[in-house]
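Researcher: Next sequence.
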Amino acid sequence: MSDTTRRPGRPGKPYRRPKKDPVRFLAFEALRAVDERDAYANLVLPPLLRKAREQGDFDGRDAALATELVYGTLRRQGTYDAVIAACVDRPLREVDPPVLDVLSLGAHQLLGTRIPTHAAVSASVELARVVLGDGRAKFVNAVLRKVSQHDLDEWIERVAPPYDDDPEDHLAVVHSHPRWVVSALWDALGGGRAGIERLLEADNERPEVTLVARPGRATTEELLGEEAAVAGRWSPYAVRLAEGGEPGAIEAVREGRAGVQDEGSQLVALALANAPLDGPDTKWLDGCAGPGGKAALLGALAAERGAVLLASEKQPHRAGLVAKALAGNPGPYQVIAADGTRPPWRPGSFDRVLMDVPCTGLGALRRRPEARWRRRPEDLDGFAPLQRGLLGTALDSVRVGGVVGYATCSPHLAETRAVVDDMLKQHPGAELIDARPLLPGVPDLGDGPDVQLWPHVHGTDAMYLALIRRTA
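Model: Next structure:
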């Protein structure tokens, strides 16, 4: 059948059927999954890309473009929403979400990539014809032609309030973060405009893929023999992959002897493992172990010292991921599914305890850009009791002379120092110890004794760590 036909009852120009662009269609599918199912792009996109490759629709360049379209659109969503709002005659909440996804994809191609204007508009309109129909494709065409009249800098001048009038709102539009997130990050970071701008910019950059060579199972030298691999910055077990490096192509990763793990996550495990103890050092606990990255590193370090790791995770399916990450560990370990606020183990059972608690994830916005749009300030109220309960369990679970590591992947003060300060007041037989000397070579760790890592300073997720010794 021909791609063109005449519309019934309409003389004149033949009707051309829309052609599906596999790259942009896949990007649209991913954005719809993020919007409709509250999915995360880093979980949705890989199987879509794998399926496209298996069907022969994609090569490496196609996969790279689809990835950029999805992540770039999600990272800059706030900025693009402000631009699109200036180009439509109704509130954005009245624009159907699938239409807004197509518009956002088009805006990213126009304002955030080097794709020529005519190609960005025509490809977006063609996508709209495929997924929305011809009528709404005309609306997409009209809006994107307005968007194309200015570049990103010009649009920011038009849609962002002046910094002097409202610094936080200005930064929110320019750097595409909700205003409350800008405020929270600025409070945690401190300092003036330059620092917070660097942090927000870092949140919008594509993070490197970092591997961990699990001690006793793989070495950094082995991983550095891979193409596009370079040494990590701070962790002796870290190896970074240059852009385009594929972890799944590396034998040690496929075999579980190495894994994908942010360097900040590695540093948290290393600091706890290296903290000085009074007395024996044979029983370790990871009390919130899912999905297993820190547990796998701790388990390998424990095995080198003849210690045993107990990895506990509340959700059974996540406990399964922990078991998979620890499979093949060179020493003994145990994985259980248990609620960390109602632990099955006896108080004072462990020499070292890690509690990497559930949190808002504001420290990992590079990896999960959609999280910034999902989280709300009231989420903090939901996490607060759980975080305090888990830290309380950790302090009860460690013996006198042992050490607890309290960690979050959020720099929000309500999830970090506020939790630690509150629990120390309730546990007078515990004291903070200085974590900074346990991260040798890592600069700009602040005044201590706790540690806050930053994407723009350390190239890691914004991990927080407080080390607490049980003294009585």
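Model: The longest strand covers residues 398-408. Residues 379-397 form the longest helix (19 residues).
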